[in-house]
Design a protein that fits this description.
Helix content is 47%, strand content 15%. It has three helices and three strands; from the N terminus they run βαβαβα. It has helices at residues 18-35, 57-67, 82-101; strands at residues 9-14, 41-46, 70-73. Strands 1-2-3 form a three-stranded parallel sheet, sandwiched between helices.
């Protein structure tokens, strides 16, 4: 019996650190080039509990739109919306596995 490993990538950046956002952007670009969209990617903007963001919601959303990946905001400190992002990734990975193993036509 052949076993497969199903993967996804969660890319997290700080909304309070432009460098963090730029690194996330660069990493996503690398993943898209290397994996050619075969691997689901989730983009997570973290530290939404802080009141001094330097990366706007719109910038994160635009990056996610261009990369064709899901976008979530979160606060690790407040344990806010973190599970939602990971459950979304699990749903996407499981759906791709079902779609790969069964024909819906």
């Amino acid at each position: 019996s052949e076993k497969s490993i199903d993967l996804g990538i969660v890319v997290v950046y700080s909304i309070c650190d432009t460098s963090s956002f730029l690194q996330a952007k660069s990493f996503i670009s690398y993943c898209l080039d290397y994996f050619s969209l075969d691997l689901p990617i989730i983009l997570v903007a973290n530290q939404t509990d802080l009141s001094y963001p330097v990366v706007s919601y719109a910038e994160g959303l635009e990056l996610a739109r261009k990369a064709e990946c899901a976008y979530f905001t979160s606060s690790a400190k407040e344990n806010s919306k973190i599970r939602r992002a990971f459950w979304h990734l699990i749903d996407v990975v499981c759906f791709r596995k079902v779609k790969k193993n069964y024909s819906f036509t």
